[in-house]
Amino acid sequence: MSLAITLFFFWMILSQKFDTFHLGLGFFASVGITLFTRKIFSTTTYDRVYPFTLRQLGLIFAYFPWLLIEIVKANIQVAIAVLKPTMDLQLQTFTIQTKLPEGLPRLIFANSITLTPGTVTLDFEEDRLLIHALNDKSAQGLRPSPSDPEQHIEMEDRIAKHFVTSQGTTHAS
Predict the structure, then answer these.
(1) What is the pLDDT of residues 83-135, one digit of tens each?
(2) Per-residue pLDDT averaged across 125-146, rounded?
(3) What are the angstrom distances between the C-alpha of 6 and each of 9, 37, 138?
């Protein structure tokens, strides 16, 4: 319910039209989006579905500025690689194992990888993600080095910091 209310207020702010038609359209769109996405925000696939809360929305805004900076940096790396006369491409796929709990944190991790230019999450099964990278620089922050397999992935650590409690569960309240 809180997701529908949040989306409806967001709709009102963006549309700035307060006639019956536009308010009704925004209401039905907000409720429809909430119904269609409710399973995405659950802690497990088939157990109890937790609503998307205002706290989670605040946590997303705490994570988003860092992700935006990473997207800009990756855009520059990809532009340099593609615009070079020799095209510095070393296409590669690799698997990473995440320590994030099921649900929203893993979804945000997979989508953050895909949003970052030069990398795409191809498959996501249990705690493993199959990643495609454009070159070594794109893969650098996601793949642990062979000399240090326990190396942390910064993106995963930031998601854990913002979306996982100390007990290993997601922030659902």
Answers:
(1) 888 877 888 898 888 888 888 788 888 999 998 888 999 998 888 999 999 88
(2) 82
(3) 5, 14, 35
51 within 8 A of 2, measured Cβ to Cβ? yes
Longest CA span, the chain: 63
Instruction: Give the pLDDT confidence score for residue 144 in this predicted structure.
Output: 65
Whole-model pTM above 0.70?
no
Q: Cα separation of 28 and 33, whole Å?
A: 8
Whole-angstrom distance, CA of residue 49 vs CA of residue 29: 20
**The two structure tokens encoding residue 172:** 């659902």
Tell me phi and psi for residue 133, to 5 degrees.
-125, 150
CB environment 130-169: b (16+ within 10 A), e (fewer): ebbbbbebbbebbbeeeeeeeeebebbebbbebbbeeeee
Instruction: Decide if 95 contacts 88 (C-beta within 8 A).
Output: no
What is d(CA 73, CA 77) in angstroms, rounded to the nearest whole number? 6
Q: How far is CA 78 from CA 67, 91, 93, 135, in A?
A: 16, 12, 17, 9
Q: Could you give the CA distance from residue 114 to residue 132 in angstroms, rounded to a whole number?
A: 9
Confidence at residue 156, expressed as pLDDT on a 0 to 100 scale: 87
